[in-house]
Write a structure and sequence with these properties.
With about 270 residues, the chain is mostly beta strands. It contains 4 helices and 20 strands. The longest helix has 5 residues, at about 70-75.
């Protein structure tokens, strides 16, 4: 059984229970040359039972739209459906080409492909620089309760993050016990929550271990940023899927674990 609660208009169960995998290409014909279309790619991880096992790329009409995409991590588990939506223009021959290529781990896969006329609405993206000022598209720290702010001038290694935030995001942090309540979302809609971290205080593993809950469900237990990143001043991202509540909010709680105090460098909430 596939959990389809994260997809607003899910495909039938049978779509998510099957897949094409490997390195492959779909060329969708019979479209209007030059017309705009919405491409919905449906996924569910039905083989692996942990994050990081399958990471692959997707290109639409030659443009990469997903990089090292991890279905398990994005959906929040095995046998959970998600959909990724993109805008595409049909070629002069009335076709849209969707290419699935290998990334950092295992083989690409897809459960279903849906092409609709019209351009997809732009995704909702809220990016918050925790403990810091506005930086590019990232907002100054907001929507939090509790905790304190801190920062460093040390350079941050962002090579482990596919689409890193600005340096300033990783150089600041909110720490302590605190909660972010992200407003202005669509009630019942699915969102990707990216939590950005870098350990800018401790210089050894085991010194900071804390928990994170999203909408009351614990998603990280005794996270050790230093250990997970492989050192001090190295950026990492943890990705989850969450559904906005009836008030159009997602709540992210940072709670104490086995050592020291929780922290976060930045929070990004992106519509699915």
């Amino acid at each position: 059984m596939i959990n389809t609660s994260h997809v607003t208009n899910p495909a039938p169960q049978a779509v998510y229970q099957s897949e094409r995998f490997g390195a492959f290409t779909y060329t969708i014909p019979g479209l209007t040359a030059g017309a705009s279309y919405t491409v919905n790619l449906h996924f569910a991880e039905i083989y692996w039972n942990a994050a990081g096992k399958r990471l692959f790329n997707v290109l639409i009409n030659g443009t990469q739209v997903l990089t090292n995409f991890d279905v398990f991590a994005a959906a929040g588990g095995e046998n959970i459906a998600i959909a990724k939506t993109f805008a595409a223009t049909a070629s002069s021959s009335g076709a849209i080409t969707i290419q699935f290529t290998t990334g950092a781990a295992d083989l690409p896969k897809v459960s279903g492909i849906e092409i609709k006329t019209g351009t997809a609405p732009p995704p909702t993206t809220i990016e918050i620089n925790s403990g810091g000022a506005a930086s590019g598209a990232w907002l100054a720290d907001t929507d939090f309760t509790g905790g304190s702010a801190s920062s460093t001038t040390a350079a941050i290694n962002t090579s482990l993050v596919t689409n890193p935030a600005p340096q300033a995001v990783y150089q600041s942090e909110r720490f302590g016990t605190f909660t972010y309540t992200i407003p202005g979302l669509t009630a019942g809609a699915s969102y990707t929550v990216n939590l950005h971290f870098a350990e800018i205080y401790w210089s050894a593993a085991g010194k900071r271990q804390f928990n994170v809950l999203i909408n009351g469900t614990q998603v990280l237990t005794n996270l050790d940023v230093f250990a997970a990143a492989g050192g001090e001043n190295i950026a990492i991202v943890k990705t989850f899927t969450a559904t906005a509540n009836a008030s159009g909010q997602i709540t992210i709680q940072f709670a104490t674990g086995a050592a020291d105090l929780p922290k976060v460098s930045g929070i990004a909430v992106i519509s699915n």
